């Protein structure tokens, strides 16, 4: 019982990170109907940026967040304006966008590999080994911080999407881009901004990941897969949906240690994905549209 | 639907061209003084062509992009290797059984996931590939873990003979490709690719057709895995099941022209040439180069080399034969893939020659 409680708290801490990680993918898919296959590559690149800032300039990973968010927002806007913009919309573009963004992922991997070799890297902050007690069990400070940052980011995003004009424009474009053009919304600009925002969120996830895991240029494949599992589980749009998808995945993974060997944790997410897609194609809560 | 055609799924001219090309390739090494290296590489290229064609059945004909075909490549390779090691089965039988097991494995995960379309299916296949790789790496009793498996060198065809086995593999893959493309099944697959629900409305059982294609694709890729195991005489799970292997199949097809027979084979040739001659010296750049190639192709010529050939033909065609209805008109009508496939039938000859 005590062990189960400890595991449950672990799962919730993990779910915070997962939700922040998945939201970028969900936002871009919700608005542009494109699966950003470079998502994992962006996460990996952001982890490297954080590591460089820490290693060279001594900037704490958590202070690097604003830098990474701005940098990857600009990269995202650049990717949209330079590449994604030219893809055909609709189902014809789906295959092409997958392949194009896959190409981007390969390029990112190669650039990082050339700059920093393929060795595993990790960030060792002073507080990396300290821990804090919650309900009698100890958890590393890093994991708690990651959880808090993720929650703050998600709340901010929720407010942005529901309380601002820009957020309303994004949600309107997600529902019907054509009528938005009629209503005087610059749809292309909303697309560019959304792609930037989604990429910035992947960047944030990368910063957080760099404090939790060791990483190398091939890091990110399972992060992409997990993000996708979460947006399928929770529906594409709402913060609440993403959060619940993240909680389901995190609990399934953490508690799977009772059943399967640890190296198969990634497979747990995949099995969950297939089961949900086959049984409930609309997601656990039957909601797929960004509202 | 197909009644109007004189021959069910292939024209006599294409058949003769194909036979001539195969004959030339079959006798080539006996007549020409090819070095060992070139000879072996061409044999390996035949296998890659077959594998790319098999990927294309699913990715091009049905429009379901798989990022997980390394799973079947690996399963086929390891099952074949184990059978040869344990029971001393003849090589070809080993490949076939390995292929069938791989096809069965493909059905196992594919039957549920093929109900998904587009990005959903694609991402699911990333999961399949990763999960299979993990299981294979840790299941060292079967795969030899990180130290891999060595095949007996004494039995089976030599590396020199494998050239012809590779050629047979390619012939089989091309034949199946045309059958899938040109027969009634091809029409059903096209309908599924364009619109699953509309296909179902006119009585096309999408599940059954997709299962069939996936099984064939998995089996062929599995046989290719077996061939690769014999070719290398040593396999390890990190290599056989690697994500890069799935990627390479996608790249070959996309470089050549997705959805076309000509494209998948031609793309495999280009891929091997790039791999062997350019990147042997710049091994650190290969992922990025392929990435850039992928981006450029998607942005500028989504049909790859086939698309370029079509453009070229249109240029020449307009000058010489302004009334050529088949080429430019049907492309302009929007179904570029179809036109390219028709083109593939005629132009396959040049492409099969590495």
Give an account of the 3D structure:
The complex is a heterodimer of chains A (291) and B (354). With 291 residues, chain A is mostly helical. Chain A has a domain at 17-219. Chain A has helices spanning 2-32, 39-57, 64-82, 91-116, 141-163, 165-175, 177-182, 187-212, 221-234, 239-255, 265-279; strands at 131-134, 137-140. A two-stranded antiparallel ribbon of chain A has the order 1-2. In chain A, a hairpin with a 2-residue loop joins strand 1 and strand 2 (137-140). In chain A, helix 1 (2-32) runs parallel beside helix 5. The relative contact order of chain A is 0.20. Chain B is mainly α and 354 residues long. Chain B has one domain. In chain B, helix 2 runs parallel beside helix 7 (159-182), helix 3 (70-87) runs antiparallel to helix 4 and helix 12 (243-256) crosses helix 13. The two termini of chain B are 36 Å apart. The chains are: A mainly alpha (291), B mainly alpha (354). At the A-B interface, helix 4, helix 9 and helix 11 of A face helix 4, helix 5, helix 12 and helix 14 of B.
| Structural class computed from helices and strand pairing of chain A | mainly alpha
* Helical content class of chain A: over 70%
* Residue share in helix of chain B: over 70%
Distance from first to last alpha carbon of chain B: 36 Å
Question: What distance lies between the first and last C-alpha atoms of chain A, to the nearest angstrom?
Answer: 39 Å
Mean pLDDT over the full residue set of chain B: 78
Task: Name the largest protein-protein interface in this structure.
Answer: A-B, 43 and 42 residues
- Roughly what is the average pLDDT of chain A, rounded to an integer? 86
Number of strands of chain A: 2
Put simply, the count of helices of chain A is 11
Largest beta-sheet characterization of chain B = 2 strands, antiparallel
Order of helices and strands of chain B: HHHHHHEHHHHEHHHHHHH
Treating each run of at least 4 consecutive H or I residues as one helix, how many helices of chain B?
Answer: 17
């Amino acid at each position: 019982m005590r062990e189960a409680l400890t595991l449950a708290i672990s799962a919730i801490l993990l779910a915070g990170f997962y939700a922040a990680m998945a939201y970028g993918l969900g936002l871009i898919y919700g608005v542009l109907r494109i699966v950003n296959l470079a998502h994992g590559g962006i996460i990996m690149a952001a982890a490297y940026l954080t590591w460089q800032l820490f290693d060279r300039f001594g900037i704490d990973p958590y202070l690097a967040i604003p830098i990474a968010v701005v940098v990857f927002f600009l990269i995202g806007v650049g990717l949209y304006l330079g590449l994604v913009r030219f893809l055909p919309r609709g189902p014809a573009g789906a295959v092409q966008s997958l392949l194009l963004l896959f190409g981007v992922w390969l390029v990112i991997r190669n650039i990082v590999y050339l700059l920093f070799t393929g060795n595993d890297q990790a960030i060792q902050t002073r507080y990396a080994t300290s821990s804090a007690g919650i309900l009698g069990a100890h958890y590393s400070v890093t994991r708690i911080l990651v959880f808090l940052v993720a929650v703050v980011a998600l709340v901010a995003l929720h407010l942005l999407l529901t309380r601002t004009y820009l957020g309303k424009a994004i949600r309107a474009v997600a529902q019907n881009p054509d009528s938005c053009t009629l209503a005087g919304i610059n749809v292309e600009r909303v697309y560019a901004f959304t792609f930037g925002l989604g990429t910035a969120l992947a960047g944030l996830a990368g910063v957080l990941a760099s404090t939790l895991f060791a990483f190398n240029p091939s890091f990110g494949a399972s992060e992409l897969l997990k993000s996708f599992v979460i947006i399928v589980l929770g529906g594409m749009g709402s913060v609440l949906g993403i959060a619940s998808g993240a909680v389901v995945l995190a609990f399934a993974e953490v508690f799977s240690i009772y059943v399967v060997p640890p190296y198969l944790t990634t497979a747990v997410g995949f099995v969950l994905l297939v089961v949900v897609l086959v049984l409930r194609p609309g997601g656990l809560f039957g909601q797929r549209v960004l509202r | 639907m197909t009644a109007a055609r004189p021959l069910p799924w292939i024209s006599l001219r294409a058949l003769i061209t194909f036979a001539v090309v195969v004959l030339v390739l079959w006798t080539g090494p006996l007549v020409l003084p090819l070095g060992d290296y070139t000879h072996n590489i061409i044999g390996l290229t035949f296998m890659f062509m077959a594998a790319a064609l098999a990927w294309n059945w699913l990715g091009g004909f049905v429009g379901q992009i798989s990022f997980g075909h390394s799973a079947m490549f690996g399963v086929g390779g390891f099952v074949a290797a184990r059978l040869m090691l344990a029971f001393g089965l003849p090589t070809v039988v080993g490949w076939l059984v390995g292929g069938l097991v791989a096809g069965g494995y493909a059905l196992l995960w594919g039957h549920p996931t093929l109900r998904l379309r587009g990005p959903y299916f694609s991402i699911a296949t990333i999961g399949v590939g990763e999960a299979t790789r993990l299981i294979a790496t840790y299941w060292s009793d079967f795969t030899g873990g990180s130290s891999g498996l060595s095949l007996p060198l004494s039995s089976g065809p030599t590396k020199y003979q494998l050239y012809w086995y590779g050629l047979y593999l390619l012939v089989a893959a091309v034949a199946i490709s045309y059958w899938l493309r040109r027969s009634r099944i091809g029409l059903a697959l096209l309908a599924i690719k364009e619109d699953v629900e509309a296909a179902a409305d006119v009585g096309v059982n999408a599940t059954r057709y997709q299962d069939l294609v996936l099984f064939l694709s998995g089996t062929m890729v599995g046989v290719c895995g077996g061939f690769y195991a014999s070719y290398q005489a040593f396999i390890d799970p990190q290599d056989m099941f690697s994500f890069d292997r799935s990627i390479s199949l996608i790249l070959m097809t996309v470089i050549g022209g997705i959805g076309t027979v000509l494209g998948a084979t031609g793309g495999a040739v280009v891929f091997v040439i790039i791999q062997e001659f350019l990147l042997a010296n710049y091994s650190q750049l290969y992922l990025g180069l392929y990435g850039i190639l992928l981006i450029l192709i998607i942005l500028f010529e989504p049909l790859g080399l086939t698309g370029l050939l079509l453009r070229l033909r249109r240029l020449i065609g307009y000058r010489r034969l302004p009334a050529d209805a088949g080429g430019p008109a049907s492309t302009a009508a929007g179904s570029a893939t179809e036109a390219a496939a028709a083109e593939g039938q005629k132009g396959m000859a040049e492409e099969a020659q590495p």
